[in-house]
Amino acid sequence: MALLAVENVYKSFQGFLALAGVSLEVAEGSFHALVGPNGAGKTTLFNVITGRFPPDRGSVIFQGKPITGWPTHRVARLGLAISFQRAQPFASMKVREAVTLARLGYAGATFHLLRPLGAFTEALDAAREALAKVGLEDQADRRVSELPLGDLKRLDVAMALVAKPKLLLLDEPLAGLSRAERRRMVGFIRELLRREGVTLLFTEHDTEAVLELADRITVLHQGRVLVEGNPEEIRHDVQVRAAFLGG
Ligand code: ADP
């Protein structure tokens, strides 16, 4: 059984069909890439999966459970986390505080002063552990706004991992990074998620990184799945090469 299944999903915006019958299965333990040109529908599909907006038709099934149209916080509690610019709203906070808040939010805390001390202690411990996992333990007392982009992306991942997700969605994890940083980030993502046993669904424009990191690739084009395969199959697909991989 797939960890995540998207079945025949349609989504339109003011008559424009952004997703036109997309189906996708993410196998447990896999690193699955979603690629395609700008406007292909990748972000829209992420938003449908995480419940940011419901599809017009079709369904989303997570661990065999239909979650179509569920609100994001409910989807998150089932073990589906998105790590996209999570830290941004917490720019003035310290790194440790941002991750602690992410844990408290996940655990259902509403207003922290009303929570028992135990919830705090647990969240602080979880935050320390998550920061250690992404190698940011020595940055815990810095302000989020002071972090260089590479560290900020690690912090985004820590804020997602602190909820102990089964499936992590990463939206362009390498965007804005230098070539050297991209290489480091690919190694970091692979080692960390394999060690944690987290399944990954990600979008990315850096095709070399996609071919290196993914074990399954779905190519979206104009709201439809153009082709799906393993990196070898995708690399040798003439149509895909011409359109997206260059040459
Ligand atoms: P990608 O992430 O692959 O670049 P998107 O999912 O962002 O593609 O966009 C797919 C299409 O849907 C685009 O043509 C975009 O303009 C349109 N679209 C996405 N979100 C909205 C929205 N909230 N309102 C109107 N149009 C949207």
UniProtKB/TrEMBL annotation:
This is ABC transporter ATP-binding protein. InterPro entries: AAA+_ATPase, ABC_AA/LPS_Transport, ABC_transporter-like_ATP-bd, BCA_ABC_TP_C, P-loop_NTPase. PROSITE patterns: ABC_TRANSPORTER_2. The keyword Zinc does not apply. It holds the Pfam family ABC_tran. GO terms for molecular function: ATP binding. It comes from Thermus composti. Keywords: ATP-binding, Nucleotide-binding, Transport. Residues 4-247 form the ABC transporter domain. It comes from the Bacteria.
